[in-house]
Structures are given as C-alpha cells and as structure tokens.
UniProtKB/TrEMBL annotation:
Highest taxon of the lineage: Bacteria
Signal sequence range: 1-25
Keyword Signal found: yes
Biased composition, class Low complexity, residue ranges: 33-50
Organism: Nocardioides koreensis
Keywords noted in UniProt: Signal
Name the record gives this protein: Lipoprotein
Keyword hit for Signal: yes
Residue ranges of the region described as Disordered: 23-53
Length: 193
C-alpha cells in the first residue's frame, strides 16, 4: 500500500513540475519578457510577447578609447520585432555612469545593421532605415509585423571617466499584455582601453 501511495505522489509531483516548465529554446537570450497578470492568453494556452528583441542585434562589451574631439556617439545595436500592435512605455539603461542618453528613437528598419560610431558618421547608418519617420522611443507606437531599430545618441562625460552604460531595458504594452526586454550590451568609455 505504501508503494502505491509513493508512486502516486511521485507521478503527481512530476506532472506538476512538467506543467510549470517553459517550452525552452524558443525565446532569444536577450529577451526577458513577462506578460502582465491581466494579459490574455493565446489560443495555445501560453501568452506570447507582442514585442521581441531580435537576436541578431548581438550582445557584447565595447570599450572606446575616448578623445574629446569625437563628441557624441550613435548606437543602433538594438533591434525589435513587433508581433502585435504595441507601445513602448519606457526605454532606459539600468546603469549610465559618466555617459548620458541624450536622444532615443525608434525607426522602421528591415535590414539595418548595428553601429557604434561617432555621431558625425551617423548619416551612413541612419540612411539604412526609415529615419525621416522616426519616433521618440518613449511612447512610440509599433505596428504588428514590423521590424525596428532603436537609435541612441550617447554623450560621454570625460570628467566622470571611466564611463559605462549597461542593460538597456525596454518596457512595452500591447495586445492585452506588457513586459520588458533587456539588452545586456556593455558600452564603456575610457581614456585608454
């Protein structure tokens, strides 16, 4: 009798653990999306995020040996895909010590490549996206089925070197859900790398 009870308990425990595990492998590593409690479930029973961070944006650490003549920098390494209509609620780095984000926009970009260059060279990269139709990142409306590039203008503050910007987080709402995405790229500015 005790063996039957133990077997039944083990079976229920394994079934419960299996129901709690994720599908695994389908979500990009840079994506940390969590539907809100009021989010509607998809027909398959699991909620899928309205906005995804595209894997090809890449996560890396970059150190720039800064020279005062370079001024601001362009960073376009974060790409988003909207699977449903959504709105960007907030876009901000988790840490920005010695560097300020002085501009953040979103623009449609089917095939834009990522860039991290002095702002004076930004025109070479901005022409690869619908830059004329850009929107401020905070509050931007995203359309379902569209790919976007995030564009940041970064201003290093040499008096506070070494400077670092990490974990850019994008909060979104849409399709009855909300969530956040984090890009774990590290951008460093130093006098010498």
């Amino acid at each position: 009798m005790k063996t039957g009870i133990l077997a039944a308990t083990l079976t229920l425990t394994l079934a419960t653990l299996g129901a709690c595990s994720s599908a695994g492998g389908d979500e990009p590593t840079a994506t940390k999306a969590s539907p809100s409690a009021s989010g509607a479930a998809s027909p398959s029973g699991s909620a899928s995020p309205a906005v995804r961070m595209r894997e090809d944006g890449g996560q890396w650490t970059n150190c720039v040996p800064y020279q005062r003549s370079e001024g601001d920098f362009l960073w376009t390494g974060v790409r988003l895909t909207a699977d449903a209509d959504a709105r960007l609620v907030r876009v901000a780095p988790a840490q920005a010590n010695g560097v300020r984000v002085v501009g953040a926009w979103v623009a449609e970009a089917e095939h834009a490549s990522g860039a991290f260059v002095p702002w004076s060279k930004s025109h070479e990269f901005l022409r690869k996206m619908d830059w004329a139709d850009r929107a401020d990142a905070d509050g931007a409306q995203l359309s379902a089925g569209t790919k976007y590039s995030m564009v940041f203008r970064l201003r290093p503050m040499p008096s506070r070197f070494p400077a670092e910007l990490t974990d850019l987080t994008i909060e979104w709402e849409g399709d009855g859900s909300s969530g956040s995405l984090t890009n774990d790229t590290v951008l460093q500015f130093k006098r010498h790398c």
